[in-house]
Design brief:
By secondary structure, this protein is mainly beta. The protein is built from no helices and 25 strands. It starts with 8 loop residues before the first strand and ends with a strand.
Length: 331
Amino acid sequence: MVGKTQNRLISAKAAGDINGDGYADLAVSFEDSTSIYLGNPDFELKQDYLFQYGFYINTGDINNDGYSDYIILSGFPSGNKSFKLHFGGEELDSTGILIRETQGFYYIFSDKVNPIGDMNGDGYNDFAISIPYNGYNAISYVYLYLDGDSISSEPFVTFEHSPWIDPSSEGTFGDVVTGIGNQNNDGYDDLLISDPANNGVAGDSGRMYLYYGGSDIDTIADSILTFHDKYFGSYLKNLGDINNDFKEDFAITSYDSCVIYFNFDSIITTDFYGSGYGIGGNGDINNDGIKDLIIGDPSYKDSVNFIGKFDVFTGNNNFKFIPNFSNVGKQ
């Protein structure tokens, strides 16, 4: 699967099971379109649905009907944009529900928004939309939507970050948004929002903002995470439980490092040059019942060339940053 010169590949994402047939599906976004490939026993790469917009967010199942749902950003590069929520089903919803509109082209949107979980404990998964950069007033916005049984175009909570209030902000608040499970054991899922270019600690060192779920969610961060490397918060992943302590873990990458948080009880770090490009987790590769982790290192270099590699770490009761398997690229 390759892009075209005038239509480069933007992302390929797991889409959950959109049509409820028991097979995982795939969403592939180019600059001007998104293709959905439905899983099948032979995984024949046949484009099943095409949207004429290059922006896709997997929200998870937000209306509890057993099908994965998703958001598509529609509009033209120089014009207004519309976020539309599409519900999964045996027949895919091609129309969608309008969630939010923006006027003009002075915005940068983030498609690094992941399933949130249930922050207010109503039994429905919540979802978010993120606008890290707003050219009109330079304020970053993350819109949180609750109540999956009655979707509203008005967000329940709006997280704002303004450089006029916090001069250390560089217009990247909301670059990555994801749910991290119930970290404080209060029965509500929690939320992390990244600001990877924030220079509050050092130049572009980055910050992560933690918001606890609850019956009354506010916009004041319950904790702010920092690290000693550039662009902390470049990527964020809910890993599930990789050390078998029955608590959800998560990983945050910076430019040169990956940091794993074990439910805030402890952390471990490792250095990977260029590891901020991506991590994969929440799957069980070796079928031992414990979640595993993959870290990409695209800037890995042999004696001459940058050839890239990825490392696989299998989960266990005493997780260490020692890869069980590595795959190195070709020269």
